[in-house]
Design a protein that fits this description.
The complex is a heterodimer of chains A (about 150) and B (about 425). Chain A has about 150 residues and is an alpha+beta fold. In chain A, helix 3 crosses helix 6 and helix 4 packs antiparallel against helix 6. Chain A starts with a helix and ends with a strand. The relative contact order of chain A is 0.22. Chain B starts with a helix and ends with a helix. Chain B is of the alpha/beta class. Chain B folds into 2 domains: about 140 residues, Aspartate Aminotransferase, domain 1; about 260 residues, Type I PLP-dependent aspartate aminotransferase-like (Major domain) (Aspartate Aminotransferase, domain 2), CATH 3.40.640. Chain B has 15 helices and 17 strands. In chain B, the strands form 5 sheets. Chain B has a 7-stranded mixed sheet with strand order 4-10-9-8-7-5-6, sandwiched between helices. Classes of the chains: A alpha+beta (about 150), B alpha/beta (about 425).
């Protein structure tokens, strides 16, 4: 159960139950769709960009607790960030969920994203955690094709 | 079927079926002795792939250690031996399915390749624009996509038999779908996502009364039921070895000899020819016409060994034991608050798809894995049928005759743990 508590931290369970920014975004000027064919996860990320600034962000879709909470915390973290800042956070997040077990992370740098540090002990779940971020990346790049984890 | 029901009734009365000792059977499967995350492995994913008994592992090892050689071509002793073993395996499959002739058994990679073979060879030969193929709403992607490809190539159309909320085919609707344009019916014997056992004999009779041949996808049926292709009178029957306690990469197409003889080859290459010049090639006879290239010899031998093993354990005993196990599992899961079983047909094989209120199946899978319990989560390569039930994914526990009631109880306890964690 202890490993499971590492994965399913309270923050994650809370965001799974009550996801933030979980709706279609009116006035969105960038969207992207992401799939995880392995488990059937599917989500849409909506962005309202002003110049390089993420003025508003939301998501919709169905997925496991990890992907849903990841999307929820991602949207909460990125509101008001620039595209460049978002890309840096994606890189940090990706490093954190794929890092070796001994590696520690600067709390200031990762903030709320730290809730996902337990994911690295569950390699098959890394894709669940990163799907929202890959989808965000596609939206920022203005890609038309749906993103797949496979 | 009656025999199985009677045996099941007997089983329920006594608690155990006569002459079936699950603990002894478990000794035959070395993989089951291991621990996963510090807990004894509870393998409930046999519908994805079954575990292999020692006799199958030994047959494959012995082949590579002492018998390895190419088949149908060498004049030396090893090649003769390998050919004999390979053809013996074909004869075992023929007896297992009660085919009248070993020539009716074609070795392929698995059920998927089997359906593709029928679609590309028989289908392409017999279909034209405006014709119709009937499948069902509970098909695996492997019994949907090959027909969609064929439809695109020929201009034929796909028709789908709907199902009710229990996951049973609506036979009246099937009757309505059969018409003068119908050229082929292809349905699953046992649904991998729901566990439903379809009334294939009736389906075949109805199709035949319209002069329409029938393909049966038996990938999930063969491990649970005894299959008699002559009693069914099916035109084609496909199955996968790896779901039948044999290696991956080997499978079977049964086809009626007169159909196979009329069909063009599926792939070209060595072994499927009699003679080749740049002007003209003469194809080999059935079944070799459909087996281009060096086959999976060890896989076929392993499949033969698995069939010997199943025959020795007794297919009727296996079916009776599994029926009792399924009843126990159904009761255990149905008693969990917030759990909904997807697929509640009256005739079911050992497959339990379920969803849990407020918990995604993927999370259930991870939590169960920590207790050493292996289940499948996701869409089970059958997205249309899950859409029919309004769920994107399910958790699926699938049974084999090496599973025990204690393992089912461990599954139920672990699901309670999920409910607590997410509560």
């Amino acid at each position: 159960m202890s490993d499971l508590r590492e994965l399913y931290q309270e923050v994650i369970l809370d965001h799974n139950k009550r996801p933030r920014n979980f709706q279609k975004l009116e006035g969105a000027n960038r969207t992207a769709e992401g799939y995880n064919p392995l488990c059937g996860d599917q989500l849409m990320v909506y962005l309202r960009m002003e110049d390089d600034m993420i003025k508003d962000i939301s998501f919709q879709g169905s997925g496991c607790a990890i992907s849903k909470a990841s999307a929820s915390i991602m949207t909460a973290t990125l509101k008001g960030k620039t595209k460049a800042e978002a890309e840096v956070l994606f890189e940090t997040f990706h490093k954190m969920v794929t890092a070796d077990l001994g590696v520690t992370f600067d709390q200031l740098e990762v903030g709320k994203l730290a809730a996902f540090s337990g994911v690295r002990e569950f390699p098959v779940r890394v894709k669940c955690a990163t799907l929202p971020w890959h989808t965000l990346h596609a939206a920022l790049e203005g890609k038309r094709e749906a993103v797949s984890t496979e | 079927m009656r025999t199985i029901n009677e045996l099941a009734a007997q089983e329920t009365l006594r608690g155990r079926p006569a002459g079936f000792d699950v603990e002894r059977v478990r000794q035959d499967f070395p993989i089951l002795r291991q621990q996963v995350h510090g807990k004894p492995l509870v393998y409930l994913d046999s519908a994805a792939t079954s575990q292999k008994p020692q006799v199958v592992i030994d047959a494959v090892t012995r082949y590579y250690q002492a018998e390895n050689s190419n088949v149908h071509r060498g004049i030396h002793l090893l090649s003769e031996r390998a050919t004999e073993l390979f053809e013996d395996a074909r004869a075992k499959v023929a007896r297992f399915l009660n085919a009248s002739d070993a020539r009716e058994i074609i070795f392929v990679r698995g059920a998927t390749e089997g359906i593709n073979l029928v679609a590309q060879s028989y289908g392409k030969m017999s279909l034209k624009a405006g014709d119709e193929i009937i499948i069902s709403a509970m098909e695996h992607h492997s019994n949907i996509v090959p027909w969609q490809i064929l439809c695109q190539e020929t201009g034929a159309a796909l028709r789908v038999i709907p199902i009710n909320d229990d996951g049973e085919l609506l036979m009246d609707e099937f009757k309505k779908l059969l018409n003068a344009r119908t050229r082929l019916v292809s349905v699953v014997h046992v649904s991998n996502a729901l566990g439903t056992i379809n009334p294939v004999k009736q389906i075949i009779e109805m199709a035949h009364s319209h002069g329409v041949p029938v393909v049966i996808d038996g990938a999930q049926a063969a491990p649970h039921l005894s299959v008699d292709v002559r009693a069914l009178d099916c035109d084609f029957y496909v199955l996968s070895g790896h779901k039948l306690f044999a290696p991956t990469g080997i499978g079977i197409v049964f086809g009626k000899a007169h159909l196979l003889e009329a069909m063009p080859p599926y792939q070209g290459g060595g072994d499927m020819i009699l003679s080749v010049t740049f002007e003209r090639t003469l194809y080999n006879v059935v079944p070799f016409k459909f087996e281009a290239g060096t086959p999976h010899i060890a896989g076929a031998i392993g499949l033969g060994a698995a069939i010997d093993y199943l025959t020795e354990v007794g297919l009727d005993k296996i079916a009776a034991y599994e029926r009792g196990l399924l009843a126990h599992a159904t009761d255990a899961l149905a008693a969990i608050p917030g759990l909904r079983i997807i697929g509640t047909a009256k005739e079911k094989a050992g497959i339990l798809s379920f969803v849990l209120d407020g918990v995604h199946p993927h999370d259930i899978g991870t939590i169960l894995d920590q207790d050493g319990i292996a289940i499948r989560t996701g869409h089970h390569c059958a997205q249309p049928v899950l859409q029919r039930f309004g769920v994107p994914a399910t958790a699926r526990a699938s049974l084999a005759f090496y599973n025990t009631r204690e393992e089912i109880d461990a599954l139920a306890r672990a699901i309670h743990k999920v409910t607590t964690l997410f509560g």
